């Protein structure tokens, strides 16, 4: 069975069918060309002239090539090649042919498919009856009298008739070989003619980069929002548990802070999940669904779980002073800085110092916190907060710095007042 699989196996049969479809698609062009050739030859009977049929076949191929330039020819050809030629789907392009190079390749494939399909279809229609008739000559005298009438006497010899069945079988095998070779040729040329062009690859890379950027941004939003909330809730709950019997008022305040933090975080989480349900595209209100801005900073500071000494220069919450996109990213940077203070500050009485200043061309954010003696909570896989802060700043054209400072820790971020405005500098990740 393995010996005949290349000729009569499932893949060979599907490719043969693909070629037959190509022959059927060629027929309209062939019929038009037969009319043109007949008119040029003065009305000569075309079907009785084999050379005229070859001329009509050759004339039909340029017509097919012109049709192949239509954009939708490529997706239809790709679908047929994937289903019938056995070509791996990853090697073929998706979508209509938009560029000139893609259209030329698709036209070349379409013409090759129809040319080979016309040849194989003609052989498939004409050769089997002839081969069967040749194979049956030794067994039917009347058939011999009809077919061999006027032919060489040598064909009537017993030894010649003995080879007739083998000759008929050889014709059928030769037909299968031609069909298999044509199918293999199409399968080998499919990646070159129907595969993605450099423009297709560039467009696909741009789509992947855009999707990755959206996923990374959503991941940062989830990390900063949910991570901060969990850190604050964990520390507030732990502190309340320790003084549950001694200081009910503190426990009440801690529970209130937990309630406010979780309520705010659920709202932010709903916004991010709404973007995920819309495949990461902003809604009609723009990008505001990504999260709050600096105008919501007072609520964050009131329930962040650590005392904060807040200083500001200018009014960073006003949209006329700071671009809304910058304001949202600045809010997340402050939120992550406070989360770091919760995890690493040690719970001492010293407040976290927060400075937000509007300079001439940039927004400056400084978060300073003492480092406690108790070890920080280590998360599996390590923290990604400072990496996310640096990414946010770089995407806006800003820069960040983070590291030890006077026995504590300082995080500094400088962002342009308007999104997209670049400033000199670089981002560092040290924690």
From TrEMBL:
Q: Which catalytic reaction applies to this protein? A: ATP + protein L-histidine = ADP + protein N-phospho-L-histidine
UniProt xrefs under CDD domains: HATPase_UhpB-NarQ-NarX-like (cd16917)
One molecular function GO term is: kinase activity
Kindly indicate whether the keyword Glycoprotein belongs to this entry. Answer: no
Enzyme nomenclature, EC number:
2.7.13.3
**InterPro entries reported in the protein's UniProt record:** HATPase_C_sf, Sensor_HK_TwoCompSys, Sig_transdc_His_kin_sub3_dim/P
Q: Which residue range or ranges hold the Signal transduction histidine kinase subgroup 3 dimerisation and phosphoacceptor domain?
A: 215-279
Q: What keyword terms does UniProt attach to this protein?
A: ATP-binding, Kinase, Membrane, Nucleotide-binding, Phosphoprotein, Transferase, Transmembrane, Transmembrane helix, Two-component regulatory system
Regions crossing the membrane: 16-40, 52-73, 107-140, 160-182
What positions belong to coiled-coil segments? none
Q: Does the keyword Kinase apply?
A: yes
Name assigned to this protein: histidine kinase
